[in-house]
Amino acid sequence: YRMGFASSRMQARQLIQHKHIMVNGHVVDIASFIVKEGNQVELREYFKTNVILEDSIKLSKAIDSKPEWVDVDYDAKTGKIIRIPARADIKEGFNEQLVVELYSK
Fold this sequence. Notes:
Blueprint lengths: L8 H9 L3 E3 L2 E2 L12 E4 L7 H13 L6 E4 L4 E4 L14 H8 L2
Antiparallel strand pairs: 1-2, 1-3, 3-5, 4-5
């Protein structure tokens, strides 16, 4: 989602469930897969010409939504995790204290 290959988190989950995404050359079919620093994320060859994918990439380029902690090559349809994002890199607002309270029960 953050690399711009999907226009929403739900669409990104579906791409993963349908086995269109590879990490370091291996197909990923678990949406909760945790990528690590240095991981190479790419689309499977047969999916690179998909119309929905092209629309998502156009939208991502138009709003320039790529975060600083990823490097994306839209032509090759690959991306790399440059570094793990810091708290300051996360733009969505949320109350961290509520998360702590939930998991401390």
